[in-house]
Amino acid sequence: MSEPVASAEPPAPAGAPVILGDVPGSFPRSVLAERHPALIRKVRDAFPYGPEQRRALDALLKNSAEGVIEPLGERARDREQWEAWGGREYFGRPWFDVPFLWSESYFYRQLLDAVGYFDPGPWQGIDPFRPFKLAELDTPEADEELTALDELAGRPMAEQEEALLLGSLWGNRADLGFRLAAAADETAADSQLVANEGEMLRSLFTGGTLCVVADNSGRELVPDLLLIDHLLRGRRVERAVLHVKPYPYYVSDATTADVIDALRRLTAAPGAAGASGHRLWSAMTDGRLTVRAHPFSCAPLPYADMPDDLRRDFAEADVTLMKGDLNYRRLVGDRRYPATTPFAGTTAYFPGPVAALRTLKSDVVVGLDPRTETALVAAEDQRWRTGGTHALIQVRR
Length: 397
Ligand SMILES: O=P(O)(O)OC[C@@]1(O)O[C@H](CO)[C@@H](O)[C@@H]1O
Description:
The chain is of the alpha/beta class. The chain has 2 domains: 27-131, no CATH class; 136-396, Rossmann fold. 46% of the residues lie in helices and 9% in strands. The protein binds 1-O-phosphono-beta-D-fructofuranose. InterPro entries: ARMT-1-like_metal-bd_sf, ARMT1, ARMT1-like_metal-bd.
């Protein structure tokens, strides 16, 4: 267990308001009111759960729409942890009235409870999202992406690195929760970077330790692993630490089991992808690639509240790569910042150089050039914030 934090309220470097789920027509509200019920139904249909689990899923469906947030059961081993993470303040309140980051995160914890994920018994440890995660790895698109590596292998190392960095960045669109929203368009032509500090990021690969805080499994984790392999192989970093979630979370977030599935997928592939998979496998066995699953990875709080042991881990890295939208929200704080708020200011607390690789899938954004924001708003009003068609690479040295 990580150390309890004193307060669940994120610090307010810029005094920007915390995002709640209570604004009609807002993105957070649509996640709570539409995506979550759709997800419960999807999980319910994906397994032959027994009557007790079905009843619990139905109860969660009703509770999350019209009830108040309830504490975990007496036997839950992380009951106190969730109380310390903000439960004492939020239990008894409607789901929509508390910080969006908190309600969304707690929803996933409650979903696992409903299917008996933590209870001793036959369903213990059965990942309710696994069928969707596995299906991801077994698509013609995944095959194509791996085959493309054969061609890339003939290019200069710097070019390979840039391509793999972008592969890891855009892999973040492969988010199963996001795809529950009908608007997600895989082939959007206007995909673009709203901030690109990729050069600066690459200058931080200087032969030391790289931390990657993973986001989604499947078609995001595979390119993350390929990037790690490239950096290890070229001695751009000496070792890599991959942070994953200790239990299933936000549908497709990577756990250790998902890392193993991704590695198996790679080692079974022909050509450059297979070779990369075998190198990664041995990097894990000799300790150059380590996987960590810290409890705080599933905390409903910003990283500014991280416990000391995790802080030490990040402090030892030459650079930490934060992958994805949720990690971005936790890195800068889930707040309504002006988009031009400096990234360096919102991440000043972080104990070492840190970079965000993220496609934009929620309201939060900082570090934009004023002209970029003006052009985005002129073209799309505020849709660019949540549509997943734009991305960013931001760095604080
Ligand atoms: O961290 P990821 O996978 O990039 O994105 C996760 C995410 O987009 O999914 C939620 C909506 O379902 C958002 O609130 C959240 O930020």
